[in-house]
Structures are given as C-alpha cells and as structure tokens.
Amino acid sequence: MTSALILSGLGKSFDGGQTWAVQDLSLEVAKGEFLALIGGSGSGKTTLLKMINRLIEPDAGEVRIDGALNTATPAPELRRGIGYVFQGAGLFPHMTLAENVAVTPRLLGWSEAEIAARVAELMELVELPVGVWGDRSPASLSGGQRQRVAFARALAARPSLVLLDEPFGALDAISRDGIAEAYRRLHDSLNLTTVMVTHDVNEALLMADRLGVMREGRLVASGPPADLLGKDVDAYVHDLLEAPRRQAARIASKFGGANG
After folding, report:
1. What beta strand segments (E) does 13-73 contain?
2. What is the rounded end-to-end Cα distance, in angstroms, of the chain?
3. How does pLDDT run across 100-153, given as a tens digit for each residue?
4. Out of 48-57, 71-80, 112-121, 162-171, which region has the weakest mean confidence (pLDDT)?
5. Which of 138, 202, 230, 252 has its CA 20 to 30 A from that of 123?
6. Can you tell me the distance from the alpha carbon of 220 to that of 241, in angstroms, rounded to the nearest whole number?
7. What gap in Å lies between CA 57 and CA 55, rounded to an integer?
8. What distance in Å separates the CA atoms of residue 31 and residue 191, rounded to the nearest whole number?
9. Model pTM?
C-alpha cells in the first residue's frame, strides 16, 4: 500500500495544553482511498482536517503528504496543491463561475489556453457546461449547483488529495444525495485520495472506503464500514454506527402499515 497521507502523533491545543482538540493521533490514508471522519461535535474532526493543509498549525506531531512533510512547502503553496471544499461552497460572488474555477490555475501561472481547457473539462464533469454556465454569477445558481462549482474549483489544479469539510451540509436532502454520488464518481474516475469530515453517518457509510471515528480529539476506531459494523467495538462507536439502522427501523414502524 502506498500512502498518500501519513499523520504521526498529531496534536493541537488552543489553551496552552490544558485541553486538546486533537491528541496523539496517528493515521495513514492510502492513495486512491476515500476516508470519512465521523464523531460528535467537538471531537476534533475539522481541526484535524485544517492541520493537514496548515490552516491550523499542530502543537505536536507531523503531517506527510506523498512522503514529504507539509511544512517543507510554504503554506499558501501547499494549499494550492490540495483540493479543499467546505460547507456553503464559498464561491467568490464578484466572479463568474468560470473565473471561480480558474482561480488556482491562474495563481499557479498556467497559460490562458491551459486554464480555458481545464475549466471547460471540469465544468463538463460537474454537469454545468461552460458554454451555458461559465458566464453566470454564483448568485444565479441553486445551492446544489454552487456546490458542484466548488468541487470543480477544488479539482482545477489537478490535486491528488482532496479535503472535504461537511461539503453537503447546507444542501437539501435530494441535492445532497445526488451531489454526493457525483463526487464519489469523480473520486473514482480521477483516482483521487479524499478525506471527508461529516456529521452524517449515513453519508459516511455510503460514500467512504474506510471510516475514522473520533471522540474527544482521539481516533477511537478505524476500518471499512462493514468491518466496524460487524465487529466488537466500544459503546460509543457502536451507538454512532447503529444510528442509521435505528432511524430506519423507526421510519418502518411509523409508516409500515400506511399502505396496508
């Protein structure tokens, strides 16, 4: 297994070490893998994600991306080589959709011909062809369409690693499901490595190759969804992963006789 991402003894405290948002966390993510980090609010998931691309600097441990320390590259340059998508899309409102997608390639000094070709390719991939949608503003789009453009922007510089921080949280259920499926197809077709933070256990179970369960800043379980669902785990992990089944059972109980 070739590792795309290695976290070793990673730790972060925001109060001088009295409490730890992330503590002594070690994890490897293989090239091409889709890892979903789940856990309750305050478990350290987003802090962990932000330490990978140096939006937050760790107080302990190290991060290696493709074998190299993430501190070996200036933070702005590092981030240009990592796709990052968060809740709410975050598109620049004063730019057209095509200009939004072109931001990172332009910062990297690509030629205008290369930029135009890449923008056209990605907008086609997210089903918003540049000839129809490129000149529109973000304000003219639905939430789901804006999030599709956010994915295109994140992939513009051909990153091998993509970080997703609750990327579907602001969307309605139908848009959320459709865009989640679309991103998983992109992950597979482009051979990406993805680390996603989500509160939605259903989403994690359906999208990810492997789950990482966090609690109070620590990684308490890691493995393929089927393995974690089927093995002897502690009560916290069990209750978290069983929540979708309990919800499905309650729905079946409430509506099971509706057509009888």
Report:
1. 22-30, 34-38, 60-65, 68-69
2. 52
3. 999 999 999 999 999 999 999 999 988 899 999 999 999 999 888 888 899 999
4. 162-171
5. 202
6. 13
7. 7
8. 8
9. 0.89
